[in-house]
Specification:
The protein has 172 residues and is of the alpha/beta class. The protein has one domain: Nucleotidyltransferase, domain 5 (2-Layer Sandwich). It is 51% helix and 22% strand. The protein has 5 helices and 5 strands; from the N terminus they run βββαβαβααα. The chain has a 5-stranded mixed beta sheet. Helix 1 runs parallel beside helix 2 and helix 4 packs across helix 5. The two termini are 34 Å apart.
Length: 172
């Protein structure tokens, strides 16, 4: 069994989603948002780190997956997002937990099957794949999608390694 923490970083809300992967099946553990309400940048980054530390203490994930920064038209927003990501990654890395990063396109493709899927499609698939009775808040759904993307990517890699092992004859 592997426990994965997905993080959707943000300067106002940092979404989190925790899933367990067991025998190829993903199970919802918890999800929600860390509200980032500090007045200064340092206070905001501290709240993100404290929130993630609490999650690490309570749920003890084996791995963490986080969304990569993408720049659209607002460079200031991208910089704030990058700082939130840095706080999250540093907090997890200090505990020696492996961190993987995925682009929004990779996440959507892994969860929905299309890299240009709408947010509503991502939310719908998160609910369906995890058997949830209700749709989580948008940031939490995105974090769960990131965790699912990581789970699917890792499963694919493991299957390829097994397949390659079968094709290779070991002689001694």
């Amino acid at each position: 069994m592997k426990r994965i923490l997905g993080i959707d970083p943000g300067s106002r809300f940092t979404g989190f989603g925790i899933i367990e992967l067991n025998a190829g099946r993903s199970r919802w553990v918890n999800s929600g948002c860390i509200r980032v309400t500090g007045a200064t940048l340092a206070e905001k980054l501290c709240l993100i780190a404290e929130g993630i530390n609490s999650l690490l203490d309570e749920y003890q994930p084996d791995e963490m997956a986080i969304e990569k920064v993408f720049v659209s038209h607002n460079v200031d927003s991208a910089l704030k997002l990058g700082q939130a990501r840095g706080a999250a990654i540093s907090t997890v890395a200090l505990r020696q937990i492996p961190v993987s990063e995925y682009s929004p396109t990779q996440i959507k493709k892994a969860v929905v099957g299309k890299g240009n899927a709408a947010k509503t499609q991502v939310q719908h698939m998160v609910v369906s794949l995890l058997g949830l009775s209700d749709s989580p808040q948008e940031d939490a759904a995105d974090a769960l999608a990131i965790a699912l993307c990581h789970a699917h990517t890792q499963q694919s890699l493991e299957q390829r390694v097994v397949a390659l092992g079968r094709k290779t004859k070991i002689t001694g």
